[in-house]
Amino acid sequence: MPAQREAQGLTVDAIVEAATRIGEKDGFEAISMRRVASALGVTAMALYKHVPTKNALLDEIANTYLADLDLAEDVDQWDERLRRIFRSFHELMVEHPVLAHVAANQTLEGPSARRMAEVVLAILRNAGFGDAEAVEVFSVLASFTVGLTLSWRARLPTDETDVAERMRELAADPDHPHLSAVAEQYVKWPEEEVFDHGLDALIDSYARRRSVR
After folding, report:
1. CA atoms within 13 A on the CB side of 44
2. For residue 192, pLDDT beyond 90
3. Are 98 and 20 a contacting pair, CB within 8 Å?
4. Are 137 and 124 in contact (CB under 8 A)?
5. CA-based nearest residue to 57, from 94, 28, 93
6. At what angle do helices 191-211 and 131-154 cross, to 10 degrees?
7. How far is residue 171's CA from residue 178's CA, in Å, rounded to a whole number?
8. What is the distance between the alpha carbons of residues 50 and 19, in angstroms, rounded to a whole number?
9. What sections of the chain are H helices per DSSP?
């Protein structure tokens, strides 16, 4: 009975754990206060006493995942440290797609997210970037990482037959000769290489801007 479950003591950790299980099994869209309440055997109103909004619940989920972020504390070189941090961020979102969806839909405010921001901003400011530029670099690298991760997941093949058919269709398209010429690469672009090249290009670009000021 819901009243009995509430009397036993509902906690934020229990709510987050239940929501995380739902997200891992059925995806980001499946997470709702009603669904979490049902999984825990309580009323939806019981959840709001511990987590005031759905966004707050999603932030708690993201905070749980980001606690495992590699902050590369053993790396001295500022640009190499940023590469490792944002690669770790990318890998966490690949492993836990819910994190990517939460990061794309709302500002992350949990302790783990603030720790990430604090570390990245400290790296940039200590490397000589001004305050506004440090915030810009952090925002661009985070947005790139979230966006490319979500884009890659959307392109994951669900059926190899459909992938092959799409490649044949594009290769035979006379109205788009350049797209036709790269049909295989366009349909099956190597995500890891693309992510690494893009991250390198962004960090190297900001490093050059800093060096010529």
Report:
1. 7
2. no
3. yes
4. yes
5. 28
6. 170
7. 9
8. 13
9. 2-9, 12-26, 33-40, 44-48, 54-66, 78-95, 97-105, 111-126, 131-154, 160-171, 177-181, 183-187, 191-211
What single-letter DSSP state applies at residue 48? H
Helix (H, G, I), strand (E, B) or coil at 11: coil
Q: List pLDDT tens digits, range 91-112.
A: 999 999 999 999 999 999 999 9
Which residue ranges form the domains of the chain, and what is each CATH number? 2-52 (1.10.10.60), 70-211 (1.10.357.10)
Model's pTM, two decimal places? 0.83
Q: How many CB atoms lie within 10 A of CB 100?
A: 26
Q: How far is CA 111 from CA 19, 62, 72, 100, 197, in A?
A: 19, 10, 18, 17, 30
